[in-house]
Amino acid sequence: MTCGVAREAELWRVLAKVRGLRVRRKLHALADARRQERRAAAVVQAEVAALARHGEERARVLVFCRHEQRAGGRWYATLRAHDAMTPVLRQRLNDALQAHELARQQAGEALRAWQIEGARHDDAKARGRAALARVASEGREHD
Protein backbone atom coordinates (compact mmCIF):
# COMPACT_ATOMS: atom_id res chain seq x y z
CA MET A 1 0.00 0.00 0.00
CA THR A 2 2.88 2.38 0.76
CA CYS A 3 4.08 2.13 -2.85
CA GLY A 4 0.69 3.35 -4.16
CA VAL A 5 0.57 6.22 -1.69
CA ALA A 6 4.16 7.19 -2.53
CA ARG A 7 3.30 7.10 -6.23
CA GLU A 8 0.28 9.32 -5.57
CA ALA A 9 2.46 11.78 -3.62
CA GLU A 10 4.93 11.90 -6.51
CA LEU A 11 2.08 12.44 -8.98
CA TRP A 12 0.79 15.42 -6.98
CA ARG A 13 4.31 16.83 -6.64
CA VAL A 14 4.79 16.73 -10.42
CA LEU A 15 1.30 18.07 -11.04
CA ALA A 16 1.95 20.96 -8.63
CA LYS A 17 5.16 21.75 -10.51
CA VAL A 18 3.35 21.74 -13.86
CA ARG A 19 0.56 23.90 -12.48
CA GLY A 20 3.16 26.28 -11.05
CA LEU A 21 4.53 26.69 -14.57
CA ARG A 22 1.01 27.34 -15.82
CA VAL A 23 0.51 29.98 -13.12
CA ARG A 24 3.66 31.77 -14.26
CA ARG A 25 2.55 31.60 -17.89
CA LYS A 26 -0.88 32.99 -16.98
CA LEU A 27 0.80 35.74 -14.95
CA HIS A 28 2.89 36.73 -17.96
CA ALA A 29 -0.26 36.74 -20.11
CA LEU A 30 -1.97 38.92 -17.50
CA ALA A 31 0.94 41.38 -17.51
CA ASP A 32 0.82 41.53 -21.31
CA ALA A 33 -2.94 42.11 -21.27
CA ARG A 34 -2.60 44.89 -18.71
CA ARG A 35 0.15 46.55 -20.77
CA GLN A 36 -2.12 46.34 -23.81
CA GLU A 37 -4.95 47.92 -21.82
CA ARG A 38 -2.69 50.78 -20.70
CA ARG A 39 -1.59 51.36 -24.30
CA ALA A 40 -5.21 51.42 -25.45
CA ALA A 41 -6.08 53.89 -22.68
CA ALA A 42 -3.20 56.12 -23.79
CA VAL A 43 -4.52 56.05 -27.36
CA VAL A 44 -7.97 57.08 -26.09
CA GLN A 45 -6.41 59.98 -24.19
CA ALA A 46 -4.48 61.04 -27.28
CA GLU A 47 -7.63 60.96 -29.42
CA VAL A 48 -9.58 62.95 -26.83
CA ALA A 49 -6.77 65.52 -26.79
CA ALA A 50 -6.74 65.65 -30.60
CA LEU A 51 -10.49 66.27 -30.66
CA ALA A 52 -10.09 69.01 -28.02
CA ARG A 53 -7.29 70.67 -30.03
CA HIS A 54 -9.50 70.45 -33.11
CA GLY A 55 -12.25 72.30 -31.25
CA GLU A 56 -9.83 74.98 -30.09
CA GLU A 57 -8.52 75.44 -33.64
CA ARG A 58 -12.10 75.72 -34.91
CA ALA A 59 -12.77 78.49 -32.41
CA ARG A 60 -9.70 80.40 -33.66
CA VAL A 61 -10.79 80.01 -37.29
CA LEU A 62 -14.27 81.28 -36.37
CA VAL A 63 -12.72 84.40 -34.86
CA PHE A 64 -10.90 85.08 -38.13
CA CYS A 65 -14.10 84.45 -40.10
CA ARG A 66 -15.87 87.15 -38.10
CA HIS A 67 -13.10 89.74 -38.01
CA GLU A 68 -11.37 89.45 -41.39
CA GLN A 69 -13.88 91.09 -43.74
CA ARG A 70 -11.73 91.01 -46.89
CA ALA A 71 -10.47 87.44 -46.45
CA GLY A 72 -13.65 86.11 -44.82
CA GLY A 73 -14.49 83.84 -47.76
CA ARG A 74 -11.15 82.09 -47.52
CA TRP A 75 -11.54 81.68 -43.76
CA TYR A 76 -14.98 80.13 -44.27
CA ALA A 77 -13.45 77.69 -46.76
CA THR A 78 -10.81 76.90 -44.14
CA LEU A 79 -13.58 76.40 -41.59
CA ARG A 80 -15.45 73.98 -43.89
CA ALA A 81 -12.25 72.00 -44.52
CA HIS A 82 -11.55 72.01 -40.80
CA ASP A 83 -15.09 70.84 -40.00
CA ALA A 84 -14.74 68.04 -42.55
CA MET A 85 -12.09 66.51 -40.27
CA THR A 86 -14.46 66.31 -37.27
CA PRO A 87 -16.16 63.02 -38.28
CA VAL A 88 -12.76 61.44 -38.92
CA LEU A 89 -11.52 62.47 -35.48
CA ARG A 90 -14.72 61.24 -33.83
CA GLN A 91 -14.44 57.90 -35.63
CA ARG A 92 -10.83 57.54 -34.49
CA LEU A 93 -11.93 58.24 -30.91
CA ASN A 94 -14.75 55.71 -31.22
CA ASP A 95 -12.34 53.09 -32.59
CA ALA A 96 -9.91 53.81 -29.75
CA LEU A 97 -12.70 53.46 -27.18
CA GLN A 98 -13.74 50.12 -28.66
CA ALA A 99 -10.15 48.89 -28.69
CA HIS A 100 -9.76 49.96 -25.06
CA GLU A 101 -12.94 48.14 -24.05
CA LEU A 102 -11.72 44.98 -25.80
CA ALA A 103 -8.32 45.27 -24.10
CA ARG A 104 -10.04 45.78 -20.75
CA GLN A 105 -12.15 42.66 -21.28
CA GLN A 106 -9.09 40.65 -22.27
CA ALA A 107 -7.25 41.83 -19.16
CA GLY A 108 -10.22 40.72 -17.06
CA GLU A 109 -10.23 37.31 -18.72
CA ALA A 110 -6.48 36.99 -18.18
CA LEU A 111 -6.92 37.88 -14.51
CA ARG A 112 -9.64 35.25 -14.08
CA ALA A 113 -7.52 32.62 -15.88
CA TRP A 114 -4.56 33.41 -13.60
CA GLN A 115 -6.75 33.18 -10.49
CA ILE A 116 -8.21 29.84 -11.58
CA GLU A 117 -4.78 28.43 -12.36
CA GLY A 118 -3.51 29.71 -9.01
CA ALA A 119 -6.34 27.91 -7.21
CA ARG A 120 -5.56 24.70 -9.11
CA HIS A 121 -1.90 25.06 -8.20
CA ASP A 122 -2.75 25.56 -4.53
CA ASP A 123 -5.04 22.51 -4.65
CA ALA A 124 -2.32 20.34 -6.18
CA LYS A 125 0.18 21.48 -3.52
CA ALA A 126 -2.32 20.73 -0.73
CA ARG A 127 -3.09 17.29 -2.14
CA GLY A 128 0.62 16.62 -2.48
CA ARG A 129 1.23 17.58 1.16
CA ALA A 130 -1.67 15.35 2.23
CA ALA A 131 -0.28 12.44 0.23
CA LEU A 132 3.18 12.97 1.76
CA ALA A 133 1.60 12.99 5.21
CA ARG A 134 -0.10 9.66 4.41
CA VAL A 135 3.23 8.23 3.23
CA ALA A 136 4.88 9.39 6.46
CA SER A 137 2.08 8.02 8.65
CA GLU A 138 2.13 4.66 6.86
CA GLY A 139 5.89 4.57 7.24
CA ARG A 140 5.54 5.01 11.00
CA GLU A 141 2.87 2.30 11.17
CA HIS A 142 5.19 -0.24 9.52
CA ASP A 143 8.05 0.50 11.93
From TrEMBL:
Superkingdom field: Bacteria
Protein name as it appears in the record: Flagellar FliJ protein
